[in-house]
Amino acid sequence: MGLNHYRFRSVWELDAPPDAVYAVLERAGEYPEWWPQVREVRWRDGDGDGAGGGGTGTARFRSLLPYDLRVTARQTYRDPGARVLAVSMAGDLEGWARWRLVPRGVDGGTRAVFEQEVEVRKPLLRVLALPGRPLFAANHALMMRAGRRGLCRRLADGPGRSGPADGRGGPGGGTRGRSRG
Fold first, then answer.
1. Mean per-residue pLDDT pooled into runs of 10, the chain (181 residues)
2. For residues 104 and 111, is the Cβ–Cβ distance under 8 A?
3. Contact indicator for 112, 101 with CB cutoff of 8 Å
4. Coil, helix or strand for 147?
5. What pLDDT does 105 receive?
6. Which of 87, 107, 108, 164 lies deepest, with the highest CB count within 10 Å?
7. Angstrom distances, CA of residue 117 to CA of 33, 59, 112, 122
């Protein structure tokens, strides 16, 4: 495994039922509404939002460091019964990402596990691989923490409504989550 290869795993403990979490996560086209670092998603086929009929889309990400990552994502697995979503990625990142959701005990909450394995293809980031690796990993961790906060707000606000997607606390704060990884 080279310096441009990354494996990430984040576990989010969420105070919302698994089906409600899945309903938000399957709608990739809406991620920019609640996840500040997901700047843009354009779904080209399937049902238009990244849910349901599969398909392919493009996404642009930007966290704290001053660079954008652009990928083409293709839905490779979708199982509402098992609550699993997966995509393959090409572009500035090449690899895959997957969400797995499991009920959390008897409290009705959800453990959301995000796993990703990618090779960085963006030329500048490849050149900066050795000195930049710790910063790139920290940048990803910040992105994931902000995503968890945004998802918690989205779940608390209910379908079709969301608070400001700025990565900070916001309205509807009744849903809490913790991130590990």
1. 94 97 96 97 69 79 94 96 98 98 92 98 94 95 98 86 38 34 42
2. yes
3. yes
4. helix
5. 83
6. 87
7. 25, 17, 17, 15
